[in-house]
Each structure stands twice: as C-alpha cells, then as structure tokens.
Amino acid sequence: MDALRNPVPAFANRPAAAQPRPPAPVEIQGSRVTELAGLAAVFAQVALIALIMRNVGLEPLAFRRVVYIAAVGFVINHLLPLRFRPRFFTTLSLCSMVVILGGTIDSRIPDLALGLVRTGTILAVGAMVIGLCHLPIGFWSRVALLVVAGCAIAIFRAGLWESGGLAVVWPVLASMLMFRAIVYLYDLATSPQRATWSHAGSYFFLFPNVCALLFPVVDFRTFWQKYYDEQALVIYQRGAKWMARGVLHLLLYRVVDRLFMLEATAVTNGAELVQFVVCNLFLYLKVSGVFHLVVGMLLLFGYNLPETNHRYFLASSFTDYWRRVNIYWRNFIMKVFYYPTFFRFKRWGQTRALVIATLWSFLVTWALHLYQTWWIKGEVAWSWPDTLFWTSLALLVLANSLWELKRNRQRKLTTGHYSAREAMGLAVRTAATFTVIAVLWSLWSTPTVGLWWHLWSLADWSTVGWGALVLASVMLGAIGFEVLPNRGPRIAATSKESHVTSRQFRLDVLYGAVPLLVLYSVVHPQVQLRLAASGSAGATDLNALFHVVSEKDSDARGQGRGYYENLTSQDEGAGQYFEMMNPGQGRRYSQPTGEVEGVHFRELIPGTQFKHHDWSFATNRWGMRDRDYELTKPAGSVRIAMLGSSQVMGYGLRDDEVFEAAIEKRLNTEHSGKGGFEILNFAVGGMSPLGQVWLLQARVRRFQPDFVVFIAHPNDLEWSNRDVVRTLRKRFSLPPAFPLEIFDQARVRSSTPEPFAVTRLRPFESRMLAACYQSIVDECRRMGAVPVYVFLPVPMDLPLDEKNTAMLLRLAAEAGFSVVDFSGIFSGHEPNELTLKDQGRHINAEGHSLIARELFDRLISDTKIDLFGQGAGISRQDNLK
Which helix (DSSP H) or strand (DSSP E) does residue 642 occupy? Predict the structure, then answer.
C-alpha cells in the first residue's frame, strides 16, 4: 500500500514484464493427431453454440458474429507459435472491432470504411488514456489527468458536441475504459513489473467487449498471470463449457422473461406477488449468460480467467452471495477500495476497519453503478429503490461479516462429507438468504418505494403456499448442488486440477457436446416446422416457446424492470449502438408513450417535443401527433378523427410529411366554401383494433367527431390476438360484443403464459377481430360519427395475401364500416422506393404523399362517406342510415 501513498514512476527501476509462459504439456498427448482431434472437439462445441444462437435468435446479429469470429480465430491462434499468439489476439480484436463497428442500418454487410474510422477513434482515445497511466509522474497526478480526460470524453458522450456517425463510439469506449483504466492504473502503481503497450492493447481492447457494453471487470494482473497457465486444450474446453452455460442462462432468461415475468403494476394477488419477486431475481440470468459467453471466448485464446458467477441463487449467507454473484466486480471492489481502506484504518482496530471498509465499498459500488449507467445510457436518475437496495445489502453483508469475525468463523478451505444436521442447516440458510435477496431485488426492480410497499399489501395465504414451494425447491437445490457432490472423502479444494488425463478430457468433451447436440436438434428449424405441422397442443406450445425465445425485445419491456434490464434495453441513450448491433434492420425510432392506468395500452405523452436522429416529433396538449385543437368543435365545421398505428402517426417522418396533415390542408384550401375541416390524428404506434375501441371510448368521444376514419393494418389479426391475451391476463374487461366462449374452446385462462395463449387462440383470430371491428362501429354510432374503414398495406409486405386481405375487408363490411380498399394503392411502385430504412419498414414521405392524394380523392367522391353532405348540415342520424 506504500505504492499508493508514494507511488514510483511507471518506468522507473522496474524489471521488464515476464513473458507469457508456454502452454503446459498437453497430457492429451501421444501425437499431433491426438492434439488436433482435441482441438476439433472443442471447435465442434463452439460451432454448435454458434448454430444454436443463430437458430434461436439469441442476442443481436453483431454478438453472434463475434462468436463466429471466436470459433475460427481460436483454432488459428492455437496453431501459431506461442510468441505470436498475443499479437494475433490483439490483431483479431482490432479486426473484429472494424467489422462490428462497421454495422449500418442499411445493410447486413459491414461498412469497413466506417468501421475503420470508428475503430481508429477508439484506438486514439484509448492510447491517450493508456499513455496517461504510464506517465512518469506521481500516482495522484495521473489520476487527476485521467479525470480531466474523462470529462473531455464526457462532453461527446453527453452530446454537447455533436459526433454524428461517431456517436456509437462513446458508449463502446466507455465500456472498455471506465473500470479497466482504474484497475490498470492501480496495478501499475502496485506491481513491481512493468506492463508493455502490447499487454495494455490486449487488455483494453478485448474483442467481445465491442458487442457487450455490460462487460465483466477483468483484472489486468490476473489477465496476464493466467495466460496459458494450464494445459491448452483444458483451458479451451473450460471456455466452451462456460459458453454453453451462458447460452443456457440466456435461454432460461428468455423463458422467464416471456412466460412468467410480471410488471409491478400487473400484480393483483398473493400468488402473483411471489411470481413477481422470484422472476425479478431470475432476470439476472441475462447478465450471467452474457458474462459466461464473453469470458468463455477469452478462455479460447488461452486467457485462463476465473468464473464470473457461481451458483449465486444457492448462497448460504449474505457474504457468500457477495462472493458468488458477479465475482469480477467483487474482486475489483475488494482490490481497489476495500483492502486499501481496511489496512489504512486497521490501527483503529479490526472491527472498526472492517465496518469502515465495508460501508465505503458499498457506497462506491452504488456510485459506480450510477456512473456506469450514465456512460452506457447517456443519462442517469437517482432513485430511492436503488439507494435502499444497496444500503440494505451493505448492512446485511456488514452484519454477516461482523458475525463471522466475532465467532472467529473459519471459511471452509476443504470440501467433504456433510452430516445430516449440517446439510439441513445449509439448506435452511440458503433458503433464508434467497428470500431476503429476492425481496431486496424486487425493491430494486420496482419504480417507486410506494408501489413496492403496496405490492406487499396483496400478500395472502397463497403467498405463503407458493413461497414455501419456491423455498423448498431452493433447499433441494442446495442439497443437490452443494451437499451431494461433496459426499465423498474430504479432499483439498482447488480451483482446477493441475493434471488432466486423456480420459478426463474425453469425458469433459462428451458431457459438453451431448447436451449441445440435443439442444441443437430441438431448436433446428426443420424440427420446429414439424412440430408446428403436427398440430398437437404440446407440440404447438413448444413451438410457441421457441418462437418467444427468438422474439425481439420491445422497448417497453425494459422500462421500470430493474437496473440491469434498463441498462441493456434499447432506447434513446444507446440507440445508435443498438442499430449497429442489428445491421441491415434499419433505424428504430422511439415514440414518447406512457402507460394508461386501468388498461394495458399505451398513449402518446401530451406536450412532448424531441428529435431522434433526423425525426422530429411533437404532440399537442391532448396527446396527438398533430396541431393543437380546441375540445369543442367549431360551428359549421366537419371534424374527422383518424385512428391507426405507426404508419398513420407518421413514424420516422417530419410533422409536415404525414398524409393526415396534407389532406387537412388540401381540404381547407380547395373546399373552403364547404365549411372548415379538422382531421385529428389519434394514431399510436402498435395500436390494435382492440386498442382503438378503448381509444374511442376514452379519448375520441369528447371531441365529437363527424367521421371516424380507421386506417387498418395487415397485422390487425395478430395484434388483436396479442392485446386480447394481455387484456385477459390483466383481468380487464373486453367489449360486450366479444365472444368469451372461445377462451374455453382454446383452453386459455388468465394464468396461461402469453405466448401459449396467443398460439392457442390463433384459430379464433378472425372471430376476435370481427368482435373488435363491430365494437368500433358500435362506438362510432353511439357518438353519432360515420365509421370509415381504410385498408392500407405495407409496401414491403407486397404482394399481399389475397385471401387474408379479402377476409379483412369482408369482416369490416359486415361490421358496418364504409370500406375503402387501398390494397392496390402502391401498384407500379417498387417497395423500396416508398419505405424508410427503419426496422419497422414504415412508409416514407413519398408514400405518404401518394396516400394523401388517393385518400383525399376518395373522401370527396365516395357517396357512402358523403363528406360534404355532412359538412353542409345533413343530420347525423340520416347519414348513419
């Protein structure tokens, strides 16, 4: 610790860093053929992992590309002489960065020129930071210079200085530097060995980091000391095993997230309270899965790093949980903050030093999590749940540590036979720890303390029953994973065996490859097609489950669901980064929506103005993307309420490019003698026909429209199914016209997981949609408005399914709409000419101009609509006949 109080210059009187040691002799030896066979076995497992990720759609395309690069790169790395391997790893990292950072919204093929510019920026800024760490000046002087450099980078991250196409660089650069620079500088100041620029480059620019902003805090000293410190193939096999474990964690995360996860506002009883608490804790599987994948990839290149997480759900105390979950973070905090503080205050007594060091470590942890959020997301907000979570965990760990210190409890350095009493005690402690951690995690994942406190008022006997079942499962897990494996003679515990025989290696390969082969066969597309074609309930549900696993995350699901969910969700703060991670899928614009109390629909937030990329967006005081209107209709005017989804809202366009505004302007210009015309744009992205029923009741009615123009979408069938299921699961009421008997026929209940319910209701979609259409017409008639139905295709979906289109038009006519069929409106145009380069394939300004012309002509000429007759004073009742 003297090095921190009076550090010596980085280059002064220090021996050269030790060269990486050669790989240990491959016990799997015998011949070069045997070695290559082992290498091929590891490659086969990594290839299976890559194929599973592709078939199931795990993680973005850019992440999967990094896995592909690792699969091929580690084989080449192994075949090179040892002295070339570190340089090859650095070169591979830089090439990977060029490929990934060259991702664009327009093409799946990387833009290498763009990738080179972005990679060069990262290298230039990274080299500056590394150079500051190596300056031959005092430690704290270097710290001050790094703070100044960080503030300069923060100007670009905050957007105070427009970066254009380089905006994606700053979160990536921050992920590489924000913690690694702290570790690197600390090790330079406390280690007798001098790090070289080659070592620094390999350490800072780890190639998996470019596709995972939330990255484990790799320790610099461990990174190099563990380089090929064991048999090469053993390290590779361990890396493949951890990658497979990461894939499993990510699959489990998707299953929990899509099948069982509830929002805090959706909890209505004691059983759902247990579901909410437990599922929130299991959402950490996403972080654990990514960490296992990226560290496993590093092991493939000989960096024999330790495990990132270890059975954290089975921790038997709070200090044990701190040791098991995110081990790299715990080691980082202990090394840089805990131990220096503890030894500095040890003269005050061991107990006082422990208290001060523990509280200081958790205070730093809380602050650094906010710091990390700002760098990755570009914004951060202090909250009581976050503060109370870290405060409570700090106090629990402190109390546990003091208890161990007081009783002079020795940590087990050996494993061996547990007596029945010891096993039961371990199981009980594990269950108690799991309970407290789960409750704390639910607090961390709830937007407000008040809402979290309200959830506990819902507790009842079902809470006790389901909670007891969960804890019994945890206790069985503790027995199965912690006690039974150690039932043999007491042996010394080591992190890994120093000697692995050929037979042991073959067994490791077998245990790793067989589960991967089984999983690959299950998720193979041909198997999924056969399951879907079988028609059986179990096969259909299994197919739905894998469909859910491959489903893209929506923006809304990450909101208000805990620190890690919000940190890894796609939003404005890291929008350009997520576009880069999904090349060829186009831009994904945000829309400012908020939840509506009492229903599961979302509405545009009133009075909002913002700019996203080149998209300017503004809402009026009523929450419409439109100019401002008075609530009371002007005398002698005709008021039209326009309903629809994102195509009607003008997703990705300027306010003056939307076809609704063009039609309104043209009506008031060319037909001013007919009275004034107002077209109110109530469209909201993703709004289904069922949502339109609610919108008519809650928002449209009070504006007293003369006409309601509903712009239908080809996806109305799927959207209605989705929202009917969500309405049922949240126990909200459905329209009176809705055929409730279909739930019994489809075996769907409010507790049926959403993807299973959607799949089972698919044969009933036309009946559900007909009920929604009828409800829209009924609401229009109740408010005295003419219901108009406009079928508008999406250019990129052409040619249309004629049978499906005919069914939609028939259902609309039978419900009582005046039907306008625009299924051929884009004939003679190439779809790409009328489509934005965004993920939703929305209609561009040229397409909106075409729609405005055609719809204007139809509105003024269609006798069934009779637009001017309504404006001339014809009674609504006559017009509705």
Answer: strand 638-643
Spatial separation of the C-alpha atoms in residues 662 and 682, rounded to whole Å: 16
The answer to whether the CB of 602 falls within 8 A of the CB of 593 is yes
Question: What's the CA gap between 754 and 537, in Å, rounded?
Answer: 15
SS3 of 523-539: the string is HCHHHHHHHHHHCCHHH
Cα separation, 301 vs 296, in Å, equals 9
**Residue 735's closest CA among 768, 779, 696, 775?**
775
Highest mean pLDDT among 278-287, 521-530, 755-764, 868-877: 278-287
Determine the 3-state secondary structure of 593 from DSSP.
strand
Judged against a pLDDT cut of 60, whether residue 120 lies above it is answered with: yes
Strands 609-612 and 602-604: unpaired
Give the residue carrying structure tokens 């949240």: 730
Nearest to 85 by CA among 176, 16, 20, 18: 20
Q: Cα separation of 876 and 881, whole Å?
A: 9
Which three-class secondary structure string do you get for 143-168?
HHHHHHHHHHHHHHHCCCCCCHHHHH
Contacts of 634 (CB under 8 A, 6+ apart): 676, 678
Q: What gap in Å lies between CA 329 and CA 596, rounded to an integer?
A: 38
* pLDDT, tens only, 700-709: 999 999 999 9
Mean pLDDT (whole number) for 584-607:
75
Is 645 within 8 Å of 794 (Cβ atoms)? no
pLDDT digits (tens, 9 = 90+) for 388-405: 999 999 999 999 999 988
> What is the reported pTM?
0.83
Number of alpha helices (DSSP H) and beta strands (DSSP E) in the chain: 37, 11
Phi-psi region of 93 (alpha: psi -120 to 50; beta: other; left: phi over 0): alpha
Q: With 70 as the cut, is the pLDDT of residue 15 above it? A: no
- Whole-angstrom Cα Rg for the chain: 31
pLDDT digits (tens, 9 = 90+) for 59-83: 999 999 999 999 999 999 999 999 9
The region that residue 611 occupies, defined by phi over 0 for left and psi between -120 and 50 for alpha, beta otherwise, is: beta
Give the C-alpha distances (Å, rounded to integers) separating 140 from 1, 4, 5, 182. 14, 8, 9, 12
What average pLDDT does the chain have? Answer: 85
DSSP one-letter string for 192-224: SSBPPHHHHHHHHT-GGGGG-SS-----HHHHH
CA nearest to 548, candidates 347, 804, 240, 757: 757
Joined tokens for residue 692: 């339109």
Question: Of 226, 405, 371, 297, nearest to 69 (Cα)?
Answer: 297
Phi, psi dihedral angles at 600 (to 5 degrees): -95, 0
Longest dimension (CA), the chain: 98
Amino acid in the structure at residue 277: V
Q: What pLDDT, on the 0 to 100 scale, is given for residue 24?
A: 46
**Listed ranges 175-179, 251-255, 502-506; the one with the highest mean pLDDT:** 175-179
pLDDT at 493 > cutoff 50:
no
| Residue 820 DSSP SS3 | strand
Amino acid at 123: L
Distances in whole angstroms, Cα of residue 781 to Cα of each of 374, 557, 573, 678, 815: 51, 36, 44, 20, 12
Q: What are the tokens at 46?
A: 């990594």
Residue with tokens 């202090």: 382
Return the ∠ at Cα 265 (arms to 264 and 267), rounded to 5°.
Answer: 70
CB 812 within 8 A of CB 729: no
Per-residue pLDDT band at 43 (split at 50, 70, 90):
very high
Task: Give the C-alpha separation, 560 to 100, whole Å.
Answer: 30
Phi-psi region of 709 (alpha: psi -120 to 50; beta: other; left: phi over 0): beta
User: Which residues have CB under 8 Å from 10's CB, separation 6+?
Assistant: 133, 134, 135, 136, 188, 189, 194
